[in-house]
Automatic annotation (TrEMBL):
Membership in a protein family: Belongs to the amiloride-sensitive sodium channel (TC 1.A.6) family.
GO MF annotations, alphabetized: ligand-gated sodium channel activity
Localization terms from the record: Membrane
Membrane topology reported for the UniProt record: Multi-pass membrane protein
Chief place of localization: membrane
Protein name in UniProt: Sodium channel protein Nach
Taxonomy of the source species: Eukaryota, Metazoa, Ecdysozoa, Arthropoda, Hexapoda
The organism of origin for this protein: Drosophila navojoa
Amino acid sequence: MKQEKSQVKTNWRAVGWRFVDVVTEYCQSCSLAGFSYIANHNLHFTERLFWLLCIIVSTVGVYHLISQYQRDFTSRAVSIVHESLSPFAKVKFPSISVCELRFKTDFPRNVEEYVESLGTDLNDPYNWEVESYLSFVLFPYQYTTGMFVRCQPYEQCEKCAKCPKTDYRKLSLRVHWTQSVVHHWEILIKGLLQFGFNCSDLFNRCTLADKEFDCCKYFLPMITPFGRCFLFNSLQNNHPESQHWLPAILDRSSHLEMDLHLTRAALVSVLNEEDVPNIPLPTVDVIVLEGQHKTLQFHRETMVNDPGMKDIPVAARDCYFPDEVMPWSMYKAYSFSACISDCTRLYQMELCNCSVYNMSPYPDARYPDCDFNGYLCLESSSMVKQDVKRLFRISSPTLHCHCLPSCTEGDLKSIFEDQISTKRNVRDTNVTLLMPVWPTDQYRRQVLRSKLDVVVSIGGILGLFLGASILSAIEFVYHFTLRAANTSLMARRELERAATKFK
């Protein structure tokens, strides 16, 4: 037994000395500066120690500089500059959203018929409280605190109309569904059929640069955080290759003007292609009430990105591209406004296991819509409406709301809003969206440090301090794999030959 242990120790000792020989041989033949002096037994001990200290100091310097470079990469990899446009450059008209508004007590007749079918008031034949509740369901921006408590007095009355308790998404579709709409949207993506918005009842006439176009072909319906809206050239419910995407690229001979003739009050917003109308966020918009003709003048400066921007990590560029959609998002394109809506929905789910239906453009089993009890739960937590400041203050182990701007998000500014005329006893409205000044500048997000810059910088540091290159790395791998194996094999063969010769 003692003999076996002694033999094992001898074997391990031999392996250790063999490894030392391999390392010594590598230092003698490698291309790294200074290593050959350490392994040179012909030099004095002090000279070899001197070169060992030099290599240690150089290695520390390499570590420090590369670490500093990595820390600075996130803050210095991208730069945003303001540059001039060519006088012959064409301009792309921004996306537009038209969202329905309820003006005073005006309601579609089918909504009134639906309220009448539910029952009466305690003393009157028509229940105005239920109508107000339905108004909130159809127009979420009209929510006021305590709205759900008003429904309680009618629960014990058999003949009274009662507030609907479930299926608010279906209810918002039911009261706006007509057969003509079904026929019109059969040509659209299947996901859009569910909304049932009556486009022809909202739009009369649309023109862009004095050229008329089919409103209902290019304004596509969508449920947004604001409510029911129609979006023009939006990445959220359309795409540039679609037949419903209008090529809104205009040259100097065109008027940068869109004219919308509507049949009722509406909120008209100017957006970036990836944005959605969102109440708590500042936007360039105009509210036009019945009988009004308004003009909104705005200015736009686009944001363009260098081709290599997508290769830069998100932490370095501080933005997401529209196609970098989060797994939990309900939207087809990333934007700051869509991210805020997603975060609101997730926080509502965390509080009450449901979310307000207009926080999801499409129904999804993962995020069920709130029923009446769900709304009561959200109201007790003051989260029926979005609260952006509260979202950013949330400390939750499951909710990580770090919304960054979109990389393609341009700068939109409202210049002037003018009410040209008002006609009494007329429901039709008219909105003119105008860019009075031809854009002369744009923003550009530039790549300061690409992947090639990283390779060059780190390679330069290694070459400066240690004389290393890509061949040095190959040499290191070669010496401790292929060459070590071949050396061991040749030594074994030599021993076998010696043993055979001895016999």
